[in-house]
Amino acid sequence: MNFESKFSVTVNRIKSNIIRELLKTATAEGIISFGGGIPDPETFPIKKLSEISNEVIMNEYKIALQYGSTEGDPELRKQYIRLLEKYEDITCLDEENLMITTGSQQALFIIGTVFLDEDSYCAVSKPIYLGAGSAFNQRNPNYISIPLEKDGMNLDILEKELKKLDEEGKIDKFKFVYTVSNFHNPAGITLTLEKRKRLIELAEKYDFIIIEDDPYGALRFEGEKMPSIFKLNKGERVILLNTFSKVLSPGLRIGVIVGNKELIKKMVLAKQGMDLCSSTLTQRITARFMEKYDLFEEIQPTIKLYKEKKDKFMESLEKYLGDLEEVDWVRPEGGLFSWITLPEGFDTMEMFEIAKEKKIIYIPGETFYVDEPERNTMRVSFCLPSFEDLEEGSKRLRATIEEYAKKKGLPLKIK
Amino acid sequence: MNFESKFSVTVNRIKSNIIRELLKTATAEGIISFGGGIPDPETFPIKKLSEISNEVIMNEYKIALQYGSTEGDPELRKQYIRLLEKYEDITCLDEENLMITTGSQQALFIIGTVFLDEDSYCAVSKPIYLGAGSAFNQRNPNYISIPLEKDGMNLDILEKELKKLDEEGKIDKFKFVYTVSNFHNPAGITLTLEKRKRLIELAEKYDFIIIEDDPYGALRFEGEKMPSIFKLNKGERVILLNTFSKVLSPGLRIGVIVGNKELIKKMVLAKQGMDLCSSTLTQRITARFMEKYDLFEEIQPTIKLYKEKKDKFMESLEKYLGDLEEVDWVRPEGGLFSWITLPEGFDTMEMFEIAKEKKIIYIPGETFYVDEPERNTMRVSFCLPSFEDLEEGSKRLRATIEEYAKKKGLPLKIK
Fold first, then answer.
1. What is the CATH number of the domain that holds A218?
2. I want to staple A107 with a disulfide (CB 3.0 to 4.6 A). Which of A101, A137, A321, B74 is the partner?
3. Is A413 among the domain residues?
């Protein structure tokens, strides 16, 4: 049978995940990878999780092995409210302000479904978190792509674009701004307090919603913790997304959406047709873990480890790339990523072949754009490689850049 | 903020789940419920699951607590292929013919996304499984609703409709027939071998796909096991959906799609944006359970229990409704449901208020239609109530019917 004619327009629009394809081709012995954005499995609290899962299955099977509500486990929502109170000073939430999702990816997909039609507009950062792109793309909206600066989205450009939409009479089709507020994936950047406040002002002026995605906020190594946009706006027009993937385990597939009750209600309706409910077993395990242990106390060793790796990585990049003109990188205060920019004319996707030969892997930046990409950028993660590999990998990166420059006849200026 | 203008056309189309709303209002003390379609939690193998989950977390945490592939756990796919070989005599499948989903609901949602646009057609049974309706509705397709008879879909009507579409030049917009082949939810009906074969013939003639949803097939109490449509067609144009919710535990949220590799590839692309992957923990637990135990041997006691309950229920219905003219019900050979039809003029949704007073709950049939509903039908499940409650509930049902008939001045003829 020829299936081509049977596929929907929507699915024919979906492109294969380039990161996945790239990583598949890069599996040679001895390779050092800055590619992954996944936590170190040695940081998972396996003994505690195993004990809790035993208790949950034996004593709470009537709930933990049964169908659950689409909104999510009430116990988990209760625990999460407690955590937001304690660590984010967000108060006055009740269970109806929260829903549980199958990982943050589903939260993004639900956001797309609930707000976007083909004639809708939304603003996203440039570069954008790939998962958000793939979730929103299924709705085929119009993107307004806003460049990231060292202190977050360029809000002057955002305001200009909003003004333009307003003048064109299309502002009612503008639904939301999507932002990763802390330690952005892929760019490692954090939105400053000043910009957070200004973003809220813009949202009020142009009447839009802010989607604040914060998977990395708990992984701050240094610098001052910032209030969430959600907190600053008292949750009025901000939807906060979070996940347990970076602070407990991705395999549980637990995400959280926090927002206005009316919005949560709509999102629950959307999720119902998507998967009825997330795993009641992993939800209850997470709830009991949070009840018994202080999630953020538990990850202090992880944060310490990541900070040391980040310091080592920054030091290595300085050592091997520091003398190059027009080469720069983000020095993150938390999270898993830095973002390297090479001189104009470099194409990191093309350069990837040389990198593979030199046994060093990064993610070419061009994968993180919903429109015209910048080709001289790359995402690099420091959380999985060993300290030695962070140094050796940086050295290989220098060699890769040099060989590519030579091959393409690009000037590589020394400071 | 007024959110109304921000919602998508898609989400504004989603109606709240009526079953959920009904069951919420029906929580009084002493109520007997034929409403649920959920397994008896006492049938969950908690000791075995707890042991396995312990082993999986302690020994396989690098996989079971980490992100996994969108296709699903290779170990689980391997085990499922083994099961299909052993119990369904389906051979020649490899891992690329399978993907794992977050419950069967996600499988249905993916099917909708991959095949349906707003100008697409698909045929579904009348009544339809509610979850399929809510998944497909998000795509807003054109439905061709085919009445169920005691031996399955009325294929004469299906053929007539297909012919009509063909004549109108729209047959290329016809994507699939969706059918629950064994012990239909809500109707309890099984598609006969003859009709299975004829459905395949029609699919070949009019070039469409068959979606065979089989969550209940393993729960056969009596009668002869039938080859799946997938098996009969060698999987060429049939996509088989299954789930562990009825044979192991719904809380794991594990469904399976089996089909042509080209189709699976597209479905994996769609799932990626939806939730990246299903819980790697519950997938690996399921895989190890299947490796260590024979899933179908394990559920024999459950099947025996359900059969006894079904027998008791059929006996009770005969006792309390058997003398009524124009009242009939489905005598299922497996699964969880029967379907009662009352005389013309009865409205089971309206009657629900009286039922609540008499402390008996069923699901009004009108919830199971994507177009014009029949109002004199109801879904009744026998798997959760005790033997005493199956009898007492049937008695209350009779009293409900009598009181409603009296109130509405409807004749209630005795045979």
1. 3.40.640.10
2. A101
3. no
